[in-house]
Write a structure and sequence with these properties.
Blueprint lengths: L3 E2 L6 H6 L25 H10 L3 H7 L1 E4 L5 H7 L3 E4 L10 H16 L8 E4 L17 H7 L2 H16 L5 E2 L24 H5 L2 H7 L12 E5 L13 E2 L3 H8 L1 H8 L4 E4 L3 E2 L2 E2 L4 H11 L5 E3 L16 H10 L4 E2 L4 H13 L5 H18 L6 E2 L10 H14 L1 E5 L10 E6 L6 H5 L19 H9 L3 E6 L11 E7 L18 H11 L5 E6 L7 H4 L4 E6 L6 H7 L55 E3 L6 E4 L9 E10 L2 E8 L3 E4 L7 E10 L11 E4 L8 E11 L2 E10 L9 E5 L5 E6 L1 E6 L2 E6 L11 E9 L9 E5 L1
Parallel strand pairs: 2-3, 2-12, 3-4, 4-5, 6-8, 7-9, 8-11, 15-16, 15-17, 17-18, 18-19
Antiparallel strand pairs: 1-13, 9-10, 14-19, 20-21, 21-24, 22-23, 22-25, 25-26, 27-28, 28-33, 29-32, 29-34, 30-33, 31-32
Helix pairs in contact: 2-15, 4-5, 6-16, 7-9, 7-16, 12-13, 16-21, 18-21
Length: 811
C-alpha cells in the first residue's frame, strides 16, 4: 500500500456526487471500465488511452498548478487542474496533520469528480521535515546534513519525511535542494548540502528515501531535484541572480548533483529563478530540453518555481511571451499560484496560434500523467491515514536527534573544555539557547520562519538540562548577566535568526550582531571558560573574536531536536561532523571555496574530535571501484578518508574468507594491483592510515574478475550533443556487449590536432598528446551484460575547424 486509500476508480464520480467517502476496495477494474482505469495494463498504455480521451482544455489543466489559498474545490473540478500546492506557511486551520489530510481529500475528491477522474498532485516544501505542519519532526537543514557525511542517514531521513508527508495526504515534495552553494552571502546557503559537487551528489540518496523503491510503494512521495541549475553560484551570492560561468564550469560544479538525482529516478525537477550568463533558466531550452531531458535522460516532468515564468520577459505579471517561452523551453507544469486562470487562457491562445505545438503539450501532459499513474494515484487517491500518527512520532524525533548529533562540528576546543562535565555549575546564555524557532531556521511553519515557541520540540537549553542531570546546576540568562566565577563553564548559544531566500542574503557584514557579542562579553568578563555554540545557516565572520573563546561548535540549524546538540556537548555522542563548506577568515574573502588558494579560518572538511592525543582513526575509505581490468592487473579508486591529523596512506587488501592480505599500498585514493591470475575472481577492500598509525574501519568490498577467462567486451558510441565554431559537447554511450558483468571500463579516442578537452563528467579523463583515455567513475563502473552507461566531455577547437574526435574504442 502507498499513501492513498484504495478506491474503485470508475465509481468515484458517482460517490463524490452523492457526498460519500471513497472506501478502501479492490483495484480490479469494473466491467466496462476504460483501459486507463485498469492497473494491470502498462503505464504507457494507460497514459496513451487517457490522453486520447482528453480535450485541449483538460490537457492545459494538467499543466497548471495553483496555490491552495487561490483555488476552491469547485475550481479544481471546473478547470481540470493538474496540481495544487501549499506555499511556505500556507496551511489549513487548525494546522494539524488531520486538518491537512481533510484538506487534501477535499481537493482530491474534487479532481475525481471530473469526467475523466484524473487525480491531482498536491505539492509542498517539506525541505527539512514536513515543516509547514505544526508538530511535525523538523530535521537539520541540509547544510547540517552535509556535515554528517552520511548518505545512508540522509536516505533514512527521506523515508521518515515521506511517511509524515503521506500522513497528511501530500504526495509531492519540493525537495531536495541539490544546489552547490559557492558564496555564503546567499540566503539559501543552508539549503545546500555543501560547496563541492561531490557532497550534494552523494546526498541524492534522499531521493530514494522520499520515493521509496518504487513510486507506488508504501508512503511513496514524488521527489523534486531543485533548483536547476546553478542557483548556488550567482555572482555576489545574490538570490535569483546571475551565475556567470563557462559551460564547462557549470557542468563540472553545478550539474553533477542533478545527474545523481536523475540516476536515482527522481520524479520531478524544479527550475531555478536564477540566470546563466544573463539568460533566465525558466526560458533556457538548451539546459532544460537538450541537457536535462536529452543528455541526462530525465524522464519525469519539469516544474517552474513560484511565478518563475513571469521573469522571462522582464516585465511584471504573466505574458504570452513568458508562457510560450517557458513551455517551449521544456517546462511541463507551471506553478502559477494566483494567476492560474490567466495562464490557462494564455497557453490556450498560444497553442491555437501555433506558437506552442500540440506535440509539446502532449509531451508535457504525458510526463505528468506517467508520474500520477506510477504513484498509484488512480487506484489510491485519498490519504492513507495509517501514516497520520507518524507526524512528529517518537521514532522520527529519535532519528532527528541522531542527525543533529552527527551534524555538530567542533571547530575549537582549547584546554579540552569539551565535553562538559556533569558536575558543578553551568551557565547558559544566548537568544538561541531556548528558542525552537531560532534553532529551526527558515522554512519552519512559515516561509521565512520566526523566533519563539512555534512548534513542539526540545530546545538546546532543555537538552543541556537533560544531559547535565540532577547533580549539576544549570542557570540560564539570555543576555549573559548574572554569571560569576563560581561557574565551571559558560555556554553561549548565539548566531542568526530565521530567514529564507531574498531576506536571507547578506551583502554586507557576516558577523554576529551587537546583542550576541554583548552576551559573549558578559560571559567572558566573569573569567569562566566560554563555549560558543553557533546556530546559523552558514559560516559566520568570527575570526576576530575566536581567540577569546575557549571552544566553538557549529550547530547549524538543527531543527526541533536540540537534545542532539547537548549529546555532543556532554560527550554522550562523540563529535564526527566535518565542515561541508569552507569557513572564511573574513567576509571580504567571499566567495571562498576549497581549492581556490585563499587561506580560510577552517578548511573544508575540518572537524575536531574529543580524543586525547590521537587515538581517533581515519574515516573508512569509500567502496573501491575497479577500472582498467586486464588479465593480470586492475586499477582501484575510492573516495578519500578524512582524519583530524591527516591521512598518510592506504592499504589495499585481498579478502579470502576471513583472511586479509595486503596487495598494494598508496599515498592517494587510487592504486593498481598487479600480479593477478587470468580469469580469476578477486575481492578487494581498503584501509586508511593516519600519522599516528591509527587504521580506519575497512571500506566496502569490490569484486573483480580478470580477463582471459571470460567472454566480455564493450562498445563506445559517440553522439554530438551540440557544437559551435570553437567547441562541441559529445556524449559517449558505453555498452557491455559481453556475457558477463564488467567491473570497470575504459574508452580511448583521438582528438584532432589543435583540439583540447575542456571539461568532462561521469568519467576520469587523461590526455597524452592527441590520445585521450576515459575511465569509468566510481558510480558507473559496473555494467551487467547488455547494460549501458554514458559520459560526456566538452572540447575546444580553433575557430572554424569543423573536425571532431574519432576512433572511439572501448576495452
Amino acid at each position: 500500500m502507498s499513501s492513498r486509500q484504495w478506491a474503485i476508480r470508475a465509481a468515484v464520480p458517482l460517490l463524490v456526487a452523492a457526498g460519500l467517502v471513497v472506501p478502501r476496495a479492490s483495484a480490479a477494474p469494473l466491467s466496462g471500465a476504460a483501459p486507463y482505469q485498469d492497473p494491470s495494463l502498462p503505464v504507457p498504455t494507460r497514459v496513451a488511452d487517457l490522453m486520447s480521451r482528453m480535450t485541449l482544455d483538460e490537457k492545459l489543466g494538467q499543466m497548471t498548478q495553483a496555490e491552495r489559498g487561490s483555488v476552491s474545490n469547485s475550481d479544481v473540478t471546473t478547470y481540470r487542474l493538474g496540481s495544487v500546492l501549499s506555499g511556505g506557511g500556507s496551511a489549513p486551520s487548525p494546522n494539524t496533520a488531520a486538518s491537512w489530510a481533510d484538506m487534501y481529500d477535499g481537493f482530491q475528491n474534487a479532481a475525481l469528480a471530473t469526467p475523466l477522474g484524473i487525480p491531482i498532485l498536491y505539492g509542498a516544501d517539506a525541505v527539512h521535515g514536513h515543516n509547514n505542519v505544526v508538530g511535525a519532526t523538523i530535521f537539520p537543514h541540509n547544510i547540517g546534513l552535509g556535515a554528517t557525511r552520511d548518505p545512508a542517514l540522509v536516505e533514512r531521513i527521506g523515508r521518515a519525511v515521506a511517511e509524515e508527508v503521506s500522513g497528511t495526504g501530500v504526495d509531492w515534495d519540493f525537495a531536495p535542494c541539490l544546489c552547490v552553494a559557492r558564496n555564503d552571502r546567499w540566503g539559501r546557503t543552508y539549503e545546500s548540502f555543501g560547496e563541492t559537487p561531490e557532497l550534494p551528489s552523494s546526498m541524492a540518496t534522499i531521493v530514494t528515501g522520499l520515493q521509496g523503491a518504487t513510486l507506488n510503494g508504501p508512503a511513496s512521495v514524488l521527489a523534486t531535484a531543485k533548483h536547476y541549475v546553478g542557483d548556488g553560484g550567482t555572482t555576489g551570492g545574490v538570490d535569483q541572480g546571475d551565475t556567470q560561468l563557462s559551460e564547462a564550469d557549470l557542468r563540472a560544479i553545478h550539474l553533477p548533483p542533478f545527474r545523481a538525482a536523475v540516476e536515482r529516478g527522481v520524479g520531478s525537477v524544479m527550475i531555478s529563478f536564477s540566470s546563466w550568463n544573463g539568460a533566465r533558466l525558466h526560458g533556457h531550452q538548451y539546459l532544460i530540453t537538450t541537457v536535462l531531458k536529452g543528455e541526462l535522460g530525465f524522464s519525469g516532468f519539469v516544474v517552474s518555481d513560484w511565478n518563475g515564468i513571469d521573469q522571462i520577459d522582464g516585465a511584471p505579471g504573466t505574458s504570452a511571451l513568458d508562457v510560450r517561452t517557458a513551455v517551449n523551453a521544456g517546462i511541463d507544469m507551471v506553478m502559477v499560484p494566483t494567476a492560474w486562470r490567466q495562464f490557462i487562457d494564455l497557453l490556450r491562445a498560444e497553442v491555437q496560434a501555433g506558437r506552442v505545438t500540440t506535440a509539446r503539450v502532449d509531451d508535457a501532459v504525458r510526463r505528468i500523467l506517467t508520474k500520477k499513474f506510477e504513484l498509484g494515484l488512480f487506484e489510491k487517491p485519498l490519504t492513507d491515514r495509517s501514516y497520520t500518527s507518524t507526524v512528529g512520532s517518537a521514532a522520527h524525533r529519535a532519528l532527528a536527534r541522531e542527525a543533529v548529533a552527527k551534524s555538530q562540528v567542533v571547530l575549537k576546543n582549547a584546554g579540552n573544555v569539551l565535553p562538559l562535565a556533569r558536575s558543578g555549575k553551568i551557565f547558559v546564555a544566548g537568544r538561541s539557547a531556548d528558542n525552537i524557532g531560532n534553532q529551526s531556521g527558515g522554512w519552519t511553519i512559515s516561509w521565512q520562519g520566526s523566533s519563539g515557541n512555534i512548534t513542539p520540540g526540545t530546545t538546546i537549553l532543555q537538552g543541556i538540562r537533560n544531559s547535565a542531570g540532577s547533580g549539576t546546576t544549570v542557570t540560564y540568562s539570555q543576555d549573559g548577566t548574572g554569571i560569576d566565577s563560581s561557574y565551571r563553564v559558560a555556554v553561549a548559544v548565539v548566531g542568526e535568526t530565521p530567514y529564507a531566500e531574498g531576506q536571507g542574503d547578506r551583502p554586507g557584514s557576516l558577523g554576529l550582531d551587537a546583542a550576541d557579542l554583548n552576551t559573549i562579553a558578559n560571559l567572558r568578563a566573569s573569567g569562566v571558560p566560554v563555549v560558543v555554540v553557533l546556530v546559523s545557516g552558514r559560516p559566520l565572520d568570527i575570526a576576530s573574536q575566536l581567540s577569546g573563546w575557549n571552544a566553538l561548535v557549529a550547530a547549524w540549524l538543527p531543527g526541533t531536536e536540540g537534545q542532539g546538540v547537548a549529546d555532543v556537548l556532554f560527550g554522550t555522542v562523540q563529535p564526527t561532523g566535518k565542515l561541508p563548506v569552507t569557513w572564511m577568515s573574513s567576509a571580504s574573502q567571499q566567495p571562498i571555496n576549497s581549492g581556490d588558494g585563499k587561506t580560510p579560518l577552517f578548511p573544508y572538511g575540518f572537524g575536531l574530535t574529543y580524543a586525547q592525543g590521537d587515538s581517533s582513526p581515519p574515516t573508512a575509505p569509500g567502496t573501491p571501484a575497479a577500472s582498467a581490468v586486464t588479465s593480470s592487473s586492475a586499477t582501484l579508486t575510492w573516495a578519500a578518508s578524512s582524519d583530524d591529523v591527516g591521512v598518510t596512506g592506504y592499504d589495499v587488501i585481498r579478502l579470502q574468507g576471513s583472511t586479509e592480505t595486503t596487495v598494494a599500498t598508496s599515498a592517494t585514493a587510487s592504486a593498481t594491483v598487479t600480479g593477478l591470475a587470468a580469469g580469476t575472481s578477486y575481492t578487494f577492500a581498503v584501509y586508511a592510515r593516519d600519522a599516528a598509525g591509527n587504521r580506519s574501519p575497512r571500506s566496502g568490498t569490490v569484486s573483480v574478475t580478470t580477463g582471459g577467462g571470460q567472454t566480455g567486451g564493450c562498445t563506445a558510441t559517440a553522439t554530438v550533443q551540440s557544437q559551435w565554431s570553437t567547441g562541441y559537447v559529445i556524449q559517449v554511450t558505453v555498452t557491455n556487449t559481453g556475457t558477463t558483468s564488467l567491473t570497470g571500463w575504459g574508452v580511448t579516442f583521438t582528438l584532432p590536432p589543435g583540439h583540447a578537452v575542456t571539461g568532462s563528467w561521469n568519467v576520469t579523463m587523461t590526455t597524452s598528446g592527441q590520445a585521450v583515455t576515459a575511465r569509468n567513475a566510481a558510480h558507473n563502473g559496473s555494467l551487467a551484460p547488455g547494460a549501458s552507461t554514458s559520459f560526456g566531455f566538452q572540447g575546444g577547437r580553433p575557430n572554424g575547424d569543423t573536425r571532431l574526435p574519432s576512433g572511439y574504442t572501448c576495452g
